[in-house]
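Title: Comparing notes on inverse folding

I've been comparing how different people in this forum approach sequence design from structure. To keep things fair, I'm posting one structure and asking everyone to reply with a full sequence. Here's the target:
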């Protein structure tokens, strides 16, 4: 029995803001004839399944897949439907007006040269201006996007980063992803003052040499540790983002890393697996790098065990969040990505071009892409499709829209992930 989670749930039950928003969500969904109190309870239990709850300031981080609760952004996620009627039914069949989360690649400039960077081999035109990014953000919020992630490259190289963050109002949760380069305490405080909720800092290992080798920089490790400390001191929800290689999916190694990350200031450790993208598309012996089902299941078991240890930060993994048991792969449905020059992709790791925000509004582009993608998938879309994407593009990514459409048709899912099936 997870006494830590039980204690946190009791803490939440005594919080009047939690009660208020639980009632608010219930009142929004109860207008749908398919909605019942039992389904509401099941929905919340499914969200909490396998998760450690973290209290941060006056909010609770239930899952990094969702905005914190209670918050205006969480309400945004609930109401992001195609029609104001039958919202619950639309949500449980993944009929959305916007992705739950979208990552905006503010720049492709970066001081590092990471081994598994997903942005390699992509053609890059002129990056969006401050005004153009703010227009995209405004449109995304009007659509109902509840999490807006700012990424790169290295987003901190943009001098207008604070202005861009300030454009994200409370309807969405703002997250920044960084290598930590030159993230001083002063800059971290300014990010917080601009409206940033959370920061994800790349850290691959507690071994300085290994992290630096992965990043091809002899300063990367020191930058990351300093950034963790400064982020925590500035009052930001602080995450470590780590790519765990197949050979390192080991409980003792990972538990050592979790403790190290927590000691350095992390509230959460997000585990990414190597994705068939970037330089990995041309790497030989890829089976030695990419996870197989057995490795993925082993990681999920380690994650769940770690989340019952009170001294560890919250542990999350794509292996679990995007599994059939949870939400599935959300590329183009629950999650999306805009490149530095304004092109819409299904996700960070799937370089298929569905149009430019300079030519048409993001709301129109996303609706068209979403209709072609279909429902959330069982299994990572990038792992299944990227070899064909790369070949059709003849190595010159992103793949044009017309060719991308055929890949979408070939990979449409007929089965919903369990989170959705349980509520249908």
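Reply #1:
Here's my take.
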């Amino acid at each position: 029995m997870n006494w830590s989670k039980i204690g946190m749930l009791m803490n939440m039950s005594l919080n009047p803001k939690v009660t208020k928003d639980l009632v608010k969500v219930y009142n929004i969904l109860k207008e749908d004839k398919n909605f019942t109190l039992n389904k509401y309870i099941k929905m919340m239990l499914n969200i909490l399944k396998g998760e450690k709850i973290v209290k941060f300031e006056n909010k609770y981080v239930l899952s990094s897949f969702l905005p914190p609760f209670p918050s205006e952004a969480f309400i945004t996620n609930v109401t992001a439907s195609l029609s104001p009627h039958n919202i619950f039914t639309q949500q449980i069949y993944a009929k959305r007006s916007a992705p739950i989360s979208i990552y905006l690649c503010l720049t492709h400039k970066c001081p590092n040269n990471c081994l598994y960077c997903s942005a390699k081999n992509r053609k890059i035109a002129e990056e969006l201006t401050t005004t153009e990014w703010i227009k995209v953000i405004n449109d995304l919020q009007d659509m109902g996007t509840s999490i807006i992630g700012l990424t790169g490259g290295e987003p901190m190289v943009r001098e207008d980063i604070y202005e861009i963050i300030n454009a994200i109002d409370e309807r969405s949760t703002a997250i920044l992803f960084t290598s930590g380069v030159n993230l001083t305490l002063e800059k971290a405080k300014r990010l917080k003052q601009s409206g940033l909720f959370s920061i994800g800092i790349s850290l691959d290992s507690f071994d300085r040499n290994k992290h630096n080798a992965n990043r091809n920089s002899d300063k990367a490790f020191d930058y990351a540790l300093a950034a963790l400390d400064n982020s925590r001191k500035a009052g930001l929800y602080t995450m470590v983002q780590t790519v765990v290689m197949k050979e390192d999916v080991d409980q003792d190694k990972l538990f050592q890393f979790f403790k190290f990350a927590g000691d350095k200031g992390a509230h959460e450790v997000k585990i990414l697996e190597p994705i068939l993208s970037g330089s990995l598309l041309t790497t030989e012996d890829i089976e030695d790098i990419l996870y197989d089902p057995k490795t993925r299941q082993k990681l999920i078991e380690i994650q769940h065990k770690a989340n019952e240890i009170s001294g560890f930060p919250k542990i999350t993994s794509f292996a679990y969040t995007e599994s059939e048991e949870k939400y599935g792969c959300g590329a183009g449905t629950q999650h999306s990505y805009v490149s530095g020059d304004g092109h819409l992709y299904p996700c960070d790791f799937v370089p298929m071009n569905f149009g430019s925000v300079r030519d048409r509004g993001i709301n129109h582009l996303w609706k068209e892409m979403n209709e072609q993608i279909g429902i959330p998938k069982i299994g990572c879309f990038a792992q299944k499709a990227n070899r064909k994407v790369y070949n059709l593009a003849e190595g010159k990514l992103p793949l044009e829209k017309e060719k991308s459409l055929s890949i979408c048709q070939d990979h449409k899912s007929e089965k919903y992930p369990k989170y959705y099936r349980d509520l249908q």
